[in-house]
Each structure stands twice: as C-alpha cells, then as structure tokens.
C-alpha cells in the first residue's frame, strides 16, 4: 500500500487498491476509522500549515482508505457481517472529512486526477442509492455535493 501511496497518479493508485485487495490482509475497519479520524483532526488543527504537499498527502491517505472501503463493500458477501456497520461508518467519516477539506481549502489547486479518483471512489458507488438514502436526512455525500456547488470554480 505504501508504494502506491506515493504514486504520481491518484486514479491509478485507487484503481490498483480496489483491483488487488485481499480481504484476509486488509487493515481492520476500526483501525481505518481511527486513521480517518486522525486525518480529520490534523486537517482541522494544522491543515493550513502543512502546505500543498502535506494536503496532497492527506488526500492520498483518504483516497487509500476510501479505496479499501469500496473494495470491501464490493465483496460484501465475503465480509463478516459484524464488520459491515463499521465499514459503512468508515465510508461516512471519510466523506465527511473530504467535505471539511473542501470547505476549508476552497482555493486549493486541484489536480484533475484527484477529482476523478474522488468521484470514482466515493461518489460513483453511492450515486444510485442517493434517492433512497436522502429521503430522511441529507447524507454526507449530499453535503459534499452541496459544498462543491458553493465553490465558484
């Protein structure tokens, strides 16, 4: 995973993670959740101090976690039923952290590959479920789309 974390193309990195996942050797969902929570704290407390390279690295970490979650949910029938709620919580927390990132760093210079990988990892798998999930309350994905719509670029 570390080799592809420093890969130049985030889209290639996430596709590789999704295609080559081995459910017997993935990080436990709670550890993934802790990683996302730590990223959220780092972004809120010292994200502006980390510079462009630090922010890109944090995005790569979030994309790696998201790619792992996407791959686990694609193989849902092979995942232990007790882990599914935690895996869904990781997905929700990762999307919330991305939303916070977009809110705080509106003027960040976005690379097209990063945006494509965010779409492929987080938005595309959940897009078909949005009409059903958004009936009761706005989902984190809907909140992300609202934040995107408010950014003038």
Compact summary:
With 153 residues, this protein is mainly alpha-helical. It has helices spanning 2-5, 10-19, 29-46, 51-74, 81-104, 112-127, 130-133, 140-150.
Account of the protein in words:
The protein is mainly alpha-helical and 153 residues long. The protein has helices spanning 2-5, 10-19, 29-46, 51-74, 81-104, 112-127, 130-133, 140-150. It has 8 helices and no strands. The mean pLDDT is 86.
Strand content: under 5%
Count of helix runs: 8
| Contiguous uncertain segments of 5+ residues | none
Radius of gyration: 15 Å
Q: Give the proportion of residues in helices.
A: over 70%
The overall pLDDT, averaged over residues, is 86
C-alpha end-to-end distance: 32 Å
Tell me the structural class.
mainly alpha
- Please describe the biggest sheet, giving its number of strands, its sense, and whether it closes into a barrel: none
Give me the count of strands: 0
Order of helices and strands: HHHHHHHH
From the spread of the alpha carbons, the general shape counts as globular
